[in-house]
Amino acid sequence: MDRALIEQKVESLRLCTQRIHDKCPPRAEDLARDIDAQDIVAVNLTRAVQLCVDIAAHWIAASGLPAPQTMGEAFARLADAGVLDAGLAQRLRGAVGFRNVAVHSYRAIDWQIVHTIVHRHLHDFGAFALEAMRHAQ
Q1: Under a CB-based contact definition with an 8 Å cutoff, are residues 55 and 129 in contact?
Q2: What is the pTM of this model?
Q3: What is the pLDDT of residues 20-53, one digit of tens each?
Q4: Can you list the domains of the chain with their CATH numbers?
Q5: Residues 46-76: tens digit of each pLDDT
Q6: Which end of the chain is more exposed for a tag (fewer CB within 10 A), N or C?
Q7: Which contacts qualify for 103-109: CB closer than 8 Å, 24 or more apart?
Q8: What is the dihedral of CA 2, 8, 12, 17, to 10 degrees?
Q9: Cβ-count burial of 137 within 10 angstroms (0-12 exposed, 13-18 middle, 19+ buried)?
Q10: InterPro entries in the record, alphabetically (predicted)?
Q11: Torsion angle, alpha carbons of 67, 71, 74, 80, to 10
């Protein structure tokens, strides 16, 4: 993997997750009522997921693994290759599901779920970034 490119994406990911952390209210009910916080959190979560997918795509290409057919499959490929923890890969696949809902407006966003993602799983993005940096050349 191109280390400079991965470092740039990891820094963007760090900024997104910091913004989410800073702007997400401590209670889900408050997030459900605060449209400004909703916008900031949703946009930055979407960006964070996309950055992880981009990093995964570079990682897959550099590893010579077959290209995934879907965004979520990218994380499964890395887990199947033994370079990414399977549990982390599964959680990131779930984050892709959120991204698809947010971007394509398949249905109304459940702010309780978003709040749970932020307060229980935001660290998954950092864990993925650390693994990617560890494998970058």
Answers
A1: yes
A2: 0.93
A3: 999 999 999 999 999 999 999 999 999 999 999 9
A4: 3-135 (1.20.120)
A5: 999 999 999 999 999 999 999 999 999 999 9
A6: C
A7: 103/46, 109/38, 109/42
A8: 60
A9: exposed
A10: HepT-like, HepT-like_sf, Type_VII_TA_RNase
A11: -110
